[in-house]
């Protein structure tokens, strides 16, 4: 019995990148805020490129807390969305059959230090993901990942997934 020949690496990368682009395109706010996402395997890193209009306190100057909170919330939602489509995408399903995105129940943001006028990065860790509910912890940093700028814990309502018959 012979195993099927694996797909070429470039084909796999293109499929995954197309799925991430389709997922990001479903949230127009991501484009409005200029957030970006980088993919390494199944792990996502969110990037909030610095723009002068993101400054909330020009005296310091410091990034606006609302922009940072939105960055963390979007990062959590994208991480959950990515975790939902990853197994389907790897099974060969089309990106058009993506499930709905999770909805925020609540999010608690801890501001640890002032956001400097430079790029910010974030990663989310899904601490619990059930059929109805998920908990996600998100951390954002700027120059040093060991010194986070802001972190959040969010709870999300998971979408109902269609069961294949």
UniProtKB/TrEMBL annotation:
<dbReference type="InterPro" id="IPR029069">
    <property type="entry name" value="HotDog_dom_sf"/>
</dbReference>
<protein>
    <submittedName>
        <fullName>Thioesterase</fullName>
    </submittedName>
</protein>
<feature type="domain" description="Acyl-CoA thioesterase-like N-terminal HotDog">
    <location>
        <begin position="62"/>
        <end position="156"/>
    </location>
</feature>
<dbReference type="InterPro" id="IPR049449">
    <property type="entry name" value="TesB_ACOT8-like_N"/>
</dbReference>
<dbReference type="Pfam" id="PF13622">
    <property type="entry name" value="4HBT_3"/>
</dbReference>
């Amino acid at each position: 019995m012979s195993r099927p020949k694996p797909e070429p690496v470039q084909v796999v990368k293109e499929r995954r990148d197309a799925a991430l682009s389709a997922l990001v395109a479903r949230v127009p706010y991501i484009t409005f805020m200029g957030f970006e996402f980088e993919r390494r395997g199944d792990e996502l890193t969110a990037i909030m490129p610095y723009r002068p209009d993101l400054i909330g306190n020009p005296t310091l100057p410091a990034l606006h807390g609302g922009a940072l909170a939105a960055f963390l919330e979007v990062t959590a939602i994208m991480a959950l969305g990515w975790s939902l489509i990853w197994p389907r995408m790897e099974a060969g399903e089309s990106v058009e059959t993506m499930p709905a995105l999770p909805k925020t129940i609540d999010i608690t943001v801890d501001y640890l230090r002032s956001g400097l006028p430079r790029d910010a990065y974030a990663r989310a860790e899904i601490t619990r993901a059930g059929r109805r509910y998920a908990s996600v912890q998100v951390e954002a940093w700027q120059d040093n990942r060991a010194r986070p700028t802001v972190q959040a814990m969010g709870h999300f309502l998971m979408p109902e997934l269609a069961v294949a018959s």
